[in-house]
Every structure is written in C-alpha cells, then in structure tokens.
TrEMBL record, chain A:
EC number from the UniProt entry: 1.2.4.1
MF (Gene Ontology): pyruvate dehydrogenase (acetyl-transferring) activity
Protein name from the UniProt record: Pyruvate dehydrogenase E1 component beta subunit
Keyword terms, alphabetized: Oxidoreductase, Pyruvate, Thiamine pyrophosphate
Major enzyme class: oxidoreductase
Domain Transketolase-like pyrimidine-binding residue range list: 7-181
InterPro entries: THDP-binding, Transketo_C/PFOR_II, Transketolase-like_Pyr-bd, Transketolase_C
Cofactors named for this entry: thiamine diphosphate
Origin organism lineage: Bacteria, Bacillati, Actinomycetota, Actinomycetes, Pseudonocardiales
Pfam families per UniProt: Transket_pyr, Transketolase_C
CDD domains the UniProt entry points to: TPP_PYR_E1-PDHc-beta_like
Annotated organism of origin: Amycolatopsis viridis
Keyword GTP-binding belongs to the record: no
TrEMBL record, chain B:
Protein name: Pyruvate dehydrogenase E1 component alpha subunit
Entry keyword annotation includes Oxidoreductase: yes
Keyword Transit peptide on entry: no
Pfam families: E1_dh
InterPro entries per record: DH_E1 (IPR001017), PDH_E1_Alpha_Subunit (IPR050642), THDP-binding (IPR029061)
GO molecular function terms noted in the UniProt entry: pyruvate dehydrogenase (acetyl-transferring) activity
Keyword annotations from UniProtKB, A to Z: Oxidoreductase, Pyruvate, Thiamine pyrophosphate
UniProt-listed SUPFAM superfamilies: Thiamin diphosphate-binding fold (THDP-binding)
Length: 327, 318
C-alpha cells in the first residue's frame, strides 16, 4: 500500500533497502560498516536488526565486496553492495568492468550478475582529493553496466528499487551532501519503475539544461534566478546516464533550440560531451552553440575555497545559460 | 589402494584433455584458431582429480584462462569447445568466450578468467550464496602460483575465512608465472603457508597424481560442506609446453623441461597401471578411442557454420 512519509534523502535510501530486503528474500546487503554500525552516513541504520544475517559487514576489501557480489548474483542472490566512496571503487574496478559487465555477454546469456552497487560521490567542504571525484563517466562508458544518480528524495527511493529489481549490474551513485540536507515528502510502496527515463524538474521554453546528481540543485537555483530576468530554462534531470534518455533530451531541445549540459564531473571525457555529440548526430538545428559545464581539467583541491573554484557554482551555471540564450 | 578401474578412468580423462590440447595446437598452426592460446599440458591430474571429488550438479568451478582442461574435466563436450575456439555458431558460448573466457555452467564450470586471480572473490561470492540458499554448494577457485600475488586473491581468502565460506582455493603451482619463475617473485615459495595467516588450513599436494588430488579435494569439500570454511591447496605440477602457443621457452633452464616430462601425470599413471598388471594393449586401445573421439569432434566443429555477426549486440543486457 503506497504511503507518504516525511524523510531525509538518507532515510529514503534506507526505506528502499528495507523494502527490497522485505520483498526480495534473496536480497543481501553488505559493505564496510553497513551492518552493526548502520553505515558511516547512517543510511543503513536498523537493517541488520531487522534482517539479520542478510545484512553484514565486510573487511575493507573492495575486490572481495564486488567480486563476492558478482559470484553471489550468479547464483540467484540479489546482492546490494556498498562502496563507501565512489573513489574506492577504483581499487576494484576489475570486478565491475571485466567481470560483472561481461558475464552475461560472453556466456551468451547463460550466466548473469544482477547486482546493485550503492556508492556516493562528489565534493563537499573538507573532503579530500581522493574523496571528491565524480566518476559516472567511467561507469557509463562500459557496455553491460547501468548507472543512475538520484538527486531527489523520491528518486533516492525509486531509482534504487529499479536498480535492485533490474537483472543487470547497476551502479547507483548517491551524493553525501544530500543525505541529511532536509526532509521531503516521499511516496513509499508504489510500483517499481523500469530502468531509465529522464524527468523534467522545471519546464521552460528558452533553453534545455540537462543535468544529473547533486549539481541539479544549483541548476534549479540558477534557473529560478534567471526567471526573474525573463529567461525560462527547462531543467531536465537525466537520472540515468546509462541508459541515457536521449529521446527526452531531443524532444526538449527541439522545443527550445538551445542546450546546456551541466555536471559536477570533469568536462573532458564526460557524459556531457556524449550528449552534445548525440544531439549533433541527430541533426537538430540549434539556435546557438551547445555548452558543457563541468569541472575544469584539474584535481580536486582540499581547501574549500579552491574546491569551490573547480565545482561549477550557481553563478557559473546562470552565466552560461544567460550567454547561450542571449547569443 | 584405489580400484584399477578408477585409475583407468582418470587416465582416460587426462588423455582426453591432452589430445584436445594437441589438436588445438594443430588448429592454431593451421590458422583455424587465432590469437593467444594457453594450453594446460602437464597439469591434467589437477583437473581430473578435483572434478572427481566435486558434485558438479551443484558445485561450481572458477578456473583461470588456462581452462580447457578444467572445462573438459567438468564434462563439457569437446565438440562444443572446439567450436568455441574456432568461432563457430555451435560453440559453447557462441563464439563470445573463446579460449580464455569459456563458461559451461550446465557442467558446473562458471567461467575462465583472463584477469589473473579475479575468479577468487567471485568463487567466494558463489560460496556466500550457498550459505543462504541451502544448496550445499562448494565453490572451487583455481589459479596459478603467480596469481597468489594478486590483491584480489588475498582479499578473497580473508573474506572467505572470516565468514567460513565453503570455498576451496586451489593453486596450480607450475613454477612459472608467464615467463618468470615463482621463486624469483616471493620470499617464501611454499605458497600454502599463507593459509595460516588467514586462519584456514593449507597443504601442499602432489598435483601430478589425480588420486592424491581427488583425496585432498574430497577432504576439503567435506570440510567446506560441514560449515568449517575454506581451504588452500597448493598442487605441485609443471607445464610441459610454453606459456602460450608459440612460446619458445628460452627462459627455462636446461634440464627443466626434461624433468617436467619425466614427472608429467599421463606417462606416470600409465606406468603405474602397467605395474598393476594392466595390459599395454588396453592402454593402447584407450588412447586410440580418445584420439578418435577428439578427431571426430574437431572435424565436426570445423564443418560448423561460423558465428553470425548480426547477433553481436545480443545478450548485453537482460
Ligand atoms: C591482472 C593481470 N595481470 C597480468 C596478466 C598477464 N598474465 C597473463 S598470464 C600471467 C601469468 C600468470 O601466472 P600464474 O598465475 O602462475 O598462472 P599460470 O600461467 O602459471 O597458469 C600474466 C602475468 C593478467 N592476465 N592479469
């Protein structure tokens, strides 16, 4: 029975995990500090008590966590593995890229690895160089993987369930700046949605701004400010960067004739470039050159003032949108 | 003392693997098989002994890229494997796996791995699943001596030990990792000793004696199924061929290959059987039967249609 509750983003994730563990007896939840301690961000609180052995703590061994998830998934479990920071997935990328993404294909469908990896990424004040990166383009580059970045409380609940129900390996990238940043009404218990599909967060006629992840909140702030100047930006949340809902992007750009893609990840080699290429390939006539906004080509520095100069700010986003509309 | 019939069965299985590899060598030379191929000649006793101890209707084997022998020992048909290596539509993975990424789950073989050591955590995961599904499954991860230096293997052993997972870590110690002797890469070349650091039993076994391997693996299986957790077995063996087809083996000191040939398991078991009173003619007959089976499987695979390129996008997602 659907019900609505006032929850934080972290509690929304927790509610999705609780539902998955309750409805899918084959679901397992494991990772570093997720069971007894309830997660370093408190996201998995109470689940060990409720579900016992199906929720357990692992050694600090990312290869064992992800490889264990691959093996368990091959044998009918639904592992939900937590990688505490997305940056840490890099020490065990083999298990995602060479193993999980491969197994269905090379076995011609006789094996599969339906696992969910939950992780979080992005910069926050005080985070260090190895705890600040935005890595979705790494994962999105790999055929066989699916990748989503929930940016709203409702999506934190819905997308995670879609991922767990999906029969492919899925990486759900959360953002720790969202976990405890206020509560919202979240509908629980609705139908589990299929994977994919963008969402219009703000309708507008002048320019399409495609975004995903935590940066969306700055994009919406920028769009709100610009409305005062008579610029109506349409904010589209990609949500899934693989599979990317290209149809929704094209439909919006067809109406607005302008495209800005804004993400927190580095611009070079990012998913933004991919979107621009796809729009160009589709041959849509644009009224001005498309724009990518992302982190410049540098490492993420420690000092909050320096990091702020790297991660696109509301001002930078607003300026880029204005320039493209006034071009 | 095991029955002569059981030893003859071991010999036949080992001979099937050897003949398969010899035919692969020929097909690689003719260019029918392309690319890098890693043969397992000389290591057959490990596969045959271990598979005889497993219940492949529920247990799961995760070998390395040197896995033709494992796949055959699990019972996969030679024709489907030849077809796979030849890129035929009838290949056991439709040409998607090839020599180094074969899988045959219907025979308990859950996939070779071309990333050295990567199968160890996956096997631990298969064992993890068994602790929830009541199947009684035991997972066996096989890898080389060189792979023992991979982080994934250490992580898998600790993970399996701390959770008492039913997994057997089986090192095929053929003394070489690619072209480099293992002794040059570790301070302690008794690799099974690492088991004690993780709190699990470890043992060195004669990897050229299928019966010794069978007994050690059977004991490890019994232990794992009882819930007592993982085991590390180090099976001592040797390659009697290069690391890959075409490897001139310049790195092997003189005498090394002769010693390997003297120790290899097929000749050794044949000599043992003759000593037990089995007639030479019976061994010749066995050999001829296997040779016919392999030649026939190869010929049929060569005549099969090549894999259809229009299917290349299939099976990526569910
Ligand atoms: C992670 C990784 N590193 C390097 C290689 C290249 N490589 C292929 S085989 C091999 C040697 C493996 O030696 P060992 O584990 O002893 O197995 P053996 O070949 O003796 O069966 C290496 C280094 C690889 N496949 N994977």
């Amino acid at each position: 029975m659907p019900e609505t509750k006032n929850l934080s983003y972290a509690e929304s994730v927790n509610a999705a995990l609780r539902r998955a563990l309750a409805e899918r007896p084959e679901a397992l939840l494991f990772g570093e500090d997720v069971a007894a301690p309830g997660g370093v961000f408190g996201v998995t609180k109470g689940l060990r008590r409720e579900f016992g052995d199906r929720v357990f703590d692992t050694p600090i061994s990312e290869s064992a966590i992800l490889g264990g998830a691959v093996g368990a998934a091959m044998f009918g479990r639904r592992p939900i593995a937590e990688i505490m920071w997305a940056d840490f997935s890099l020490v065990a990328l083999d298990q995602l890229v060479n193993q999980a993404a491969n197994v269905r294909y090379v076995s011609r469908g006789s094996l599969s690895a339906p696992l969910t990896v939950r992780t979080q990424q992005g910069n926050a004040p005080g985070a260090c160089a190895q705890h600040s990166q935005s890595l979705e383009a790494f994962f999105a580059h790999v055929p066989g993987l699916r990748v989503c970045l929930p940016a709203t409380h409702q999506d934190a609940y819905d997308l995670l369930l879609s991922a767990i129900w999906c029969n492919d390996p899925v990486i759900v990238i959360e953002n720790r700046t969202l976990y405890h940043a206020g509560k919202q009404q979240v509908q629980l218990g609705g139908d589990v949605q299929p994977v994919g599909g963008a969402a219009v967060r703000r309708p507008g006629r002048d320019v399409t701004v495609l975004t995903w992840g935590a940066l969306q909140h700055r994009v919406l702030e920028a769009a709100g400010r610009l409305a005062g100047d008579g610029i109506e930006a349409e904010v589209l949340d990609a949500r899934w960067v693989r599979p990317l809902d290209l149809e929704a992007v094209l439909a919006s750009v067809r109406r607005t004739g302008r495209l800005v893609v804004a993400h927190e990840a580095h611009t070079v080699g990012g998913v933004g470039g991919e979107v621009l290429a796809a729009v160009a390939e589709a041959g849509l006539p644009l009224r001005c050159p498309p724009v990518r906004i992302g982190a410049p080509d540098t490492r993420i520095p420690a000092a909050p003032g320096l990091a702020a100069a790297v991660i696109p700010s509301t001002e930078v986003i607003a300026e880029a949108i204005t320039k493209s509309v006034r071009a | 003392m095991p029955e002569t019939a059981a030893l003859l069965a071991h010999l036949e299985s080992m001979r099937r693997i050897r003949s398969f590899e010899e035919e692969v060598t020929r097909l690689r030379a003719t260019g029918d098989i392309v690319g890098s191929v890693h043969l397992c000649n000389g290591q057959e006793a490990i596969y045959v002994g271990a598979c005889a101890a497993l219940d492949l209707s529920r247990d799961a084997v995760f070998p390395t890229y040197r896995g033709h022998g494992w796949t055959l020992a699990c019972g996969a048909p030679p024709h489907a494997l030849f077809a796979e290596l030849l890129g035929r539509a009838t290949g056991i993975n439709g040409g998607r796996g090839g020599s180094a990424y074969l899988s045959a789950p219907e025979y308990g073989m859950y996939g070779e791995n071309s990333i050295v050591g990567a199968g160890a955590p996956i096997a631990a995961g298969a064992a993890l699943a068994a602790t929830f599904d009541g199947s009684g499954r035991v997972a066996l991860a096989a890898f080389g001596d060189g792979a023992m230096n991979q982080g994934a293997v250490h992580e898998a052993m600790n993970f399996a030990a701390v959770r008492a997972l039913p997994v057997i870590f089986l090192v095929e110690n053929n003394h070489y990792s690619e072209l480099t002797p293992i002794a040059d890469m570790v301070r302690v070349d008794r690799l099974f000793k690492r088991a004690s650091a993780y709190g699990m039993p470890g043992a060195r076994i004669d990897g050229n004696d299928p019966e010794a391997v069978r007994q050690a693996v059977a004991e490890a299986v019994r232990r794992a199924r009882s819930g007592a957790g993982p085991v590390l077995l180090e099976a001592m063996t040797q390659r009697i061929v290069g690391h890959y087809i075409g490897d001139a083996q310049h790195y092997r000191p003189s005498g090394d290959l002769d010693a390997a040939l003297a120790a290899e398991p097929i000749g050794r078991l044949a000599r043992e059987l003759l000593g037990l009173g089995v007639a030479q003619s019976e061994l010749d007959e066995l050999e001829a039967r296997v040779a016919r089976e392999i030649a026939d499987a190869s010929a049929r695979a060569l005549a099969d249609p090549v894999a259809d390129p229009t299917t290349v996008l299939e099976h990526l997602y569910a």
